[in-house]
Amino acid sequence: MRVEVKELDHVYNPGLAYETKALDKVSFTLGRGELVCLIGHTGSGKTTLVQHICGLLKPTSGQVLADGVDVNEKSPESRAVRKKIGLVFQYPEYQLFEETVFKDVCFGPKNMGLSEEECAKKADEALRLTGLDPEEIGGKSPFALSGGQKRRVAIAGILAMDPELLILDEPAAGLDPQGKRTILECVRSIKNERNICILLISHNMEDVAEMAERVLVMDKGRLVLDGPPGEVFAERKALRDMGLSAPPAARFMELVAAAGGPVSTSVLTLDDAAKEIIRVYGKK
Questions:
Q1: CATH classification of 3-243, choosing from 3.40.1390.20, 3.40.50.300, 3.40.50.450, 3.40.50.150?
Q2: pLDDT grade, residue 284 (50/70/90)?
């Protein structure tokens, strides 16, 4: 799926004393197979933007096209493309409700009118793609699982509906380090296996540095940066002015360089920082 956001504006409470412009001429394109991270300070417009992409809000002006179709049109074509956009809210485990894991994952495909056999097949595939064994946990109550497992079940429920654009809002938020690693590995597997576009919203710059192929930065309703992680995080001053920071590895390497260490400050991930430290100091 190709998504085009064109000159998108959104104003809350227009004409009132507390009128707020949440989006201001936002334009960009998402293509198939991309893994894009969306970042920005609280109130920057990220949530409003995502609601527009999903067709949940009507823009004040501008439009969102999915495969050339306006997602806000009242037409069969628009309804069809909206079904190809999957949104996983922050803390999606709170939305689990069925008696068993398998029933929960089957809920979406069932409501799309698929047969029981088709629903079961899609649920099985989606659970395995998120690293869960359907035979082991399919019959269990979702409320008996760990926090990380619940989150993967919730993601599987969206995957079972075969989205072509998957939007994940802080997928690793609140998880312990192991749970976080598992979720991020799950996201990589989904991208590699399905070759779908993934838009990942995160406040964690370490996760963004590890995951993103491209980074979108929102500030005060405007898209201010759009590019590869290396280019975006090189704009240190601009990011600080927006209340954002570079990834922890980059900040550490800056401290080493400031102390006279001949290290590269373009490093973004912890693994790359370790390699750089070994390169400079490991052989004496």
A1: 3.40.50.300
A2: low
